Amino acid sequence: MFSKLARLARNTRELLEFSDEFQKYGADLISLQEAIDTSTPAGRMFFTVIAAMAQWEREEISERVAASVPIRARMGKNTGGQAPFGYMWKDGKLMPNAEEAPVRALLYELFLEIRTKKGVARALNDKGYRTRSGKEFCYSTVSRLPRDPTAKGIKVANYTRSRGEGLGWDLKDPDEWVTFEVEPIVSEELWDQCNRILDEGTAKNGARPRRKTTYLFSGYVYCGRCGGGRKLYPQTQWDKYRCIKCANKIPMDDLEQLFFQHLSAFLVSDVSLSNLMSQTEERIAYLERLIGLNRKELDEVQAKIQSCIKLFHEGAISAPEVREQMQPLETRKAQLKVEIPSMELQIKSLHQHAGSRSLLEAEGQSLAERWPTLDKTGKRHIVEAVLDKITVFPNEVEFDFNYVPGTLL
Question: What's the CATH number for 5-74?
């Protein structure tokens, strides 16, 4: 017995196979809604006709839904499925989720710092963050999320089609993909930096520890003659960075001198100072959102601790059960009590930089004075803190800086 044919099988062939199998054992199929009874010749004939009509109806509905998906996608509406982590559907629009968005942004910042997928997952879990389903972050999640362009404000839709029968999905032709703009969670520069790390394989397998860099600009120098997408590699015998395709090269000492000159000018120019102050305000807003989430979590943790104590006093749980439940709560409470003041100090420092051009200028001057005295490790730290990319052309060198004030002093 079944409610109706459409709920019993997906196509006419399956329904007929069901009917043959039941007939073989002297059993009958009875539909409650369509009044079909295969125990009679007329019922079996009607069963076949209705089965064909049910399949046709399903295929028609499927085609209409498939035709509506690109239209809904172009309008920025939900085409099915959950919103990406960090976002939510509200009033038919995709927008940042106040609780998840700061965690998604933190993932990118940690990836830029740690550069390994397992390391980022471990750091997020150690801080007490969890996925939407309440599970710990894992290698596969940290592999997938940085690749999703939604975080930088570009949502891609209508790019897969089902193989049917639970066989998974296939990518559609790129011409069929639909993109629309949403509110970004991270800057395009940060998104590109993290994906460049993934593309270059520095986070391969997620288990290899970060290698100690021997050369000051290793991984940051690109060939302008080849279009900017090919790296220049250190050539120890010549003390140069060299493109293995076109032999475009630059001496290491010359590049370091140019970098120092451009960075010093960048930190004190009027345009750069204005941009840096704007970036500082964005960083402050991000930290304030994260502090709000952490304070909310701290209240929740404290409430759970009090609940455990209350249950113990009421005799509902034993002392060992209290210890078992309290241990992770106390650990997370201690972490939050360290993280919140630390972020508050960062905000205080950033506020000073945001409101004072003199502090920004002083930072540039301090760097100029300290650079000649720094060892390779110290210089490399500054390179990683301020540099996005160096492009070497035959007659000039371009430096792309990506710097948040207050991180060099």
Answer: 3.40.50.1390
Q: Which residues contact 82 (CB under 8 A, 6 or more apart)?
A: 132
pLDDT in tens, 98-128: 888 899 999 998 888 888 888 888 888 888 8
**Contacting residues for 247 by C-beta, under 8 A, at least 6 apart:** none
Contacts of 346 (CB under 8 A, 6+ apart): 287, 406
* For range 160-175, the mean pLDDT: 60
Residue 159: name the closest of 175, 177, 144 by CA.
177
Mean pLDDT, rounded, for 388-405 = 81
Please report the sign of the dihedral spanned by the C-alpha atoms of residue 272, residue 110, residue 348, residue 300. Answer: positive
User: Which residue would you say has higher pLDDT here, 160 or 108?
Assistant: 108
The pLDDT, as a whole number, for residue 65 is: 59
Question: Would you say 178 and 73 are in contact if contact means Cβ atoms under 8 Å apart?
Answer: yes
Tokens of 202: 């520095």
**Residue ranges of the domains in the chain?**
5-74, 94-206, 215-409
What topology does CATH give the domain 94-206? Hect, E3 ligase catalytic domain fold (3.90.1750)
Nearest residue to 82 via CA among 132, 12, 41: 132
Cα separation, 334 vs 369, whole angstroms = 39
